[in-house]
TrEMBL record, chain A:
<protein>
    <submittedName>
        <fullName>Putative sulfite reductase-associated electron transfer protein DsrO</fullName>
    </submittedName>
</protein>
<dbReference type="InterPro" id="IPR054822">
    <property type="entry name" value="DsrO-like"/>
</dbReference>
<keyword id="KW-0408">Iron</keyword>
<dbReference type="Pfam" id="PF13247">
    <property type="entry name" value="Fer4_11"/>
</dbReference>
<keyword id="KW-0004">4Fe-4S</keyword>
<keyword id="KW-0479">Metal-binding</keyword>
<dbReference type="GO" id="GO:0046872">
    <property type="term" value="F:metal ion binding"/>
</dbReference>
<dbReference type="GO" id="GO:0051539">
    <property type="term" value="F:4 iron, 4 sulfur cluster binding"/>
</dbReference>
<dbReference type="InterPro" id="IPR006311">
    <property type="entry name" value="TAT_signal"/>
</dbReference>
TrEMBL record, chain B:
<protein>
    <submittedName>
        <fullName>Putative sulfite reductase-associated electron transfer protein DsrJ</fullName>
    </submittedName>
</protein>
<dbReference type="InterPro" id="IPR047668">
    <property type="entry name" value="DsrJ"/>
</dbReference>
<dbReference type="InterPro" id="IPR036280">
    <property type="entry name" value="Multihaem_cyt_sf"/>
</dbReference>
């Protein structure tokens, strides 16, 4: 009796090892995902478009002195129409760029005596494309990520709508699709997708236009009030503007290091 | 042993019940859908890769295109034959749907037949065949 139990355990042990190694071997054999294999089979290669604009770190300089209410409204309308941002009013409003005022855009500027002109000026607010972005840190699915050229991008496919990024963003630059946005899009621009219910969206520094060799839409319609260029290049238009003017950034004490600068 | 008959009858009923879906659907299988190649696609002559390869791997290709475009900012795909394509599902003529103009005929017919899930691409990407109506 004792003998046979011993034998049984031996056989059981050996079989367990056999089964274990079997599955490990198959796992090794199938390593390298299907996609990779498919891509290799197709001999896939990917290229940037020849005309696409590149930078070490994209940055924006907004000259608030040159923007009045009309221009600000036009900039917002242009941006929202080419990105199919729905026009919902009230608490469920969605916005990529919007005119606010000095008091709300720069709450940490404690000077109580600002000029009358600045008090009234419409200050454009948008995603700051921070160098140290809190939204990217909190996103659980890596739907929001930082590109090498500094643009904070969103992969809408991956967004699960948890809204951690909205809690993380200190600038309120992100909007959530509380309802199906489609009925609220006046005219669909076929060159850019829209979003679905349960997805967060925000400004993408017009990544799709940069890839076509165009400047962001807000820059194009701003009549020179908004500059866009490479912050890493000392001779770029933005660096020249930063050298020539006094600029401020939003909520600097938070350490997010925005890439959007304001000439006030 | 007097319940033998009852037991057998019960087993028979059970067997029929379990296999009922097979009996109900017997002989009902529909014909596999014919893929309709749109005029624009016929005109273009060839797809991004060979027809057979696309039929087998289009899902992996699209998945990879999405990642490359969104994450790496690259928009040009160089096929095995060296031809260059704009990587886009539905933005204008120079995209997948630029050639395959009818999503109902080209995508849905097969996806519905094989039961591999309803496509929800058009929740966000613009389907030109529906947008123009």
């Amino acid at each position: 009796m004792k003998e046979s139990r011993r034998k049984f355990l031996k056989i059981a042990g050996v079989s367990a090892i056999g089964i274990g190694t079997g599955s490990v071997l198959t796992a090794f054999a199938s390593s390298g995902s299907k996609e990779e294999k498919a891509a290799q089979a197709a001999g896939a290669r990917f290229k940037h478009r020849a005309e696409s604009l590149k930078a070490g770190h994209w940055g924006m300089v907004i000259d608030t002195r040159k923007i009045d209410a009309d221009l600000a409204a036009k900039i917002q309308e242009t941006c929202h129409s080419i990105h199919n941002v729905p026009g919902i009013e009230g608490k469920q409003e969605l916005k990529w760029i919007w005119p606010s005022d000095y008091k709300h855009v720069f709450p940490m500027q404690t000077n109580p005596y600002v000029s009358e002109q600045l008090k009234k000026a419409p200050i454009l607010a948008l995603c700051n494309h921070c160098e140290n972005p809190p939204c990217v840190r909190v996103c659980p699915t890596k739907a929001t990520f930082q590109r090498e050229d500094g643009i904070i991008m969103m992969d809408f496919h991956r967004c699960i709508g948890c809204r951690f990024c909205m809690a993380g963003c200190p600038y309120g630059a992100r909007s959530f699709n509380f309802r199906d946005p489609k009925p609220f899009i006046k005219e669909m621009d076929p060159m850019y997708p829209h979003r679905m219910i349960g997805v967060v969206e925000k400004c993408n520094f017009c990544d799709e236009r940069l890839a076509r060799g165009q400047m962001p839409a807000c820059v194009e319609v701003s009549k020179g009030a908004i500059l866009f260029g490479d912050l890493d290049d000392p001779d770029s238009n933005v660096r020249k503007a930063l050298r020539a003017n006094t600029t401020i950034r939003r909520k600097p004490s938070l350490g997010t290091s925005p890439s959007v600068y304001y000439i006030v | 042993m007097s319940d033998k008959l009852k037991v057998l009858a019960g087993l028979l009923v059970l067997a029929v019940l379990i296999t009922l879906p097979f009996w109900l659907n017997a002989g009902k299988s529909g014909a596999a859908p014919e893929i309709v190649i749109a005029e624009a696609a016929k005109k273009a002559g060839n797809c991004v890769e060979s027809k057979e390869w696309m039929a087998a791997n289009h899902m992996a290709l699209l998945d990879q295109w999405r990642d490359v475009v969104v994450r790496e900012g690259k928009h040009i795909y160089v096929s095995e034959s060296g031809q260059e394509f704009n990587m886009s599902l539905s933005s204008g003529e120079n995209s997948c749907l630029g050639c395959h103009t009818s999503t109902a005929e080209f995508c849905d017919s097969c996806h519905d037949y094989t039961g591999v899930g309803t496509l929800y691409c058009w929740e966000c990407h613009i389907d030109p065949s529906k947008e123009n109506k």
